[in-house]
Design goal:
- By secondary structure, the chain is mostly helical.
- The chain has 15 helices and two strands.
- A two-stranded antiparallel sheet has the order 1-2.
- The C terminus is likely disordered.
Length: 329
């Protein structure tokens, strides 16, 4: 396990350096920081002083080394738009995105896994047909269209859920959450459904396909011949042997949701990192854009590491394969 973690961390350093180079390129060549940070009426002396303070007179390799060193310490400079530290601005928005993604992912697993197993067991039932139709809609229709339809139905017509915003939040000092207030929970329902519907559909279809393959195997026939209960056959033996692709897809989907939840956040005016990133693009707030890119990359790496560790828990043979050990016969 330790060797696996060390190997993944070594790979992560290489990936982070490449992403840091990309973020530095954006930071360096997309606009003039001095012009964006100062007023048009600023004197040449003020421009020269700011250029010196930002280290823009240094050679490009020296600037890149400083950029990486500051990024390791969580320092991405000042936001051009808000004139506040970038990490403080992102930290203020991160809880909203994290809660939205986690609620969507948990709902997708709690709904998609049982539906997939049920669809594999009862392939011809009416409920399964309806579930497959809904899953086709979830896979085919873009998230922003689903979000608009939800707003039209539940906010405009029925007027039971808020159309935008996060609702009332509770400040815990290090975290702000809307899960502790009724308005916050109501505000989370539609964005979470809009974001989770694709996950639910994808996981359901994947589990159904894998379960149908597993149920044809000899060890399932042997389990039935031994007289095991249906619940043990389907969930303890069948579902467990379907978890490897599910773990892989779930890890990828969580990373994608964190990176691309900005569409849902824009539709519902959800004050998360994605909405902040779109605003930074509109205002050419380069430090925020670079920091967002680095943070999303770190999240992807962390999720991939957790996914690899779950592989080992589900199937210990994967640990030896992952670290280049001997093949298990």
């Amino acid at each position: 396990m330790l060797l696996l973690v060390l190997k993944r961390l070594a790979n992560a350093v290489v990936v982070l350096l490449f992403v840091a180079l990309l973020a530095f390129t954006i930071f360096k060549f997309l606009g003039d920081p001095v012009q964006l940070m100062l007023n048009p009426q600023a004197t040449q002396e003020e421009r020269d002083a700011l250029t010196q303070r930002l280290g823009l007179n240094d050679p490009v390799p020296v600037q890149f080394v400083k950029f990486v060193a500051n990024a390791v310490q969580g320092d991405f400079g000042m936001s051009y738009r808000n004139q506040l530290p970038v990490m403080g601005v992102i930290a203020e928005r991160f809880p909203a995105t994290f809660e939205l993604v986690m609620v969507s992912s948990i709902a997708a697993l709690l709904i998609g896994l049982p539906l997939g197993v049920f669809a594999a067991i009862n392939g011809g039932s009416f409920i399964v047909r309806v579930a497959h139709i809904i899953s086709m809609i979830g896979v085919s229709v873009p998230a922003f269209v689903i979000g608009i339809l939800l707003i039209l139905a539940f906010s405009i017509e029925l007027q039971v859920l808020p159309a935008f915003g996060r609702g009332e939040v509770v400040d815990l000092g290090f975290w702000t959450t809307g899960l502790l207030t009724s308005s916050g929970r109501y505000a989370l329902i539609m964005p979470a459904i809009s974001l989770a519907l694709f996950q639910i559909s994808f996981i359901m279809r994947l589990v159904t396909s894998e379960m149908l393959e597993v149920l044809r195997t000899d060890f399932i026939r042997f389990a039935r011949a031994r007289g095991l209960r249906a619940r043990a056959i389907y969930f303890r033996h069948g579902l467990r042997n379907c978890l490897m692709p599910v773990v892989t897809i779930t890890g990828m989907l969580i990373g994608d949701l964190i990176a691309f939840a900005l569409v849902t956040e824009i539709v519902f005016q959800w004050p998360g990192m994605g909405f902040l990133f779109v605003q930074s693009v509109q205002y050419v707030d380069i430090p925020v854009m670079a920091a967002y890119l680095m943070i999303v990359c770190c999240i992807f790496i962390l999720i991939n590491l957790i996914t690899d560790l779950i592989y080992v828990v589900v199937d210990p043979r994967m640990g030896a394969t992952a670290i280049g050990g001997s093949n298990v016969r």
